[in-house]
Fold this sequence. Notes:
Blueprint: H1 10-24, H2 32-51, H3 55-75, H4 80-104, H5 114-134
Helix pairs in contact: 1-3, 2-3, 4-5
Amino acid sequence: MSGAADSPSPALVEACAVQQRAAAVGFDWPDVTGVLAKVREETAEIEHALAASDPQHAKRELGDLLFSAVNLARFLDADATQELRRATARFQCRFARVEREIERSGRSMTACSLEELDAVWERVKGDLSAHEEGA
C-alpha cells in the first residue's frame, strides 16, 4: 500500500500538533484520567444534543470527541492515524467473516435482524480475538 492511504490524516496531524503545543506550555491534563473524563463528557454532550434534536450541535460535539480521542492517543503514546487504520482493518476483517457466515447459512444480511447480525459479530469477534491472542 502506498500513497494517500499511507499518509497521516492532515486533521489528525493538526489536532496532535495543537495539543502538543498546548502541553508544551503546561496546558495539559496531569494524567490520562482527565482525558478519559473529557472523552466521556463529549460523548454525553453528543447524546444531549441528539436528545434535543439538534444535529448541528451534535456534529460540533463529535468534533470535540474526535479531538479528545486524538489527545487520548497522545497520552497513550499511540499514533492516532495508525490506530484508526488498525481499527478499520479489524472491522473489515470481522465484517467480511460475518458476511461469509451469513452467506453459508443460506441467508442474506438484509434478511437478518440486527440481533442476529450482532450475535454472529460477537462470535466472530471472539474467534478472531482468541486467534490474535494465540498468535
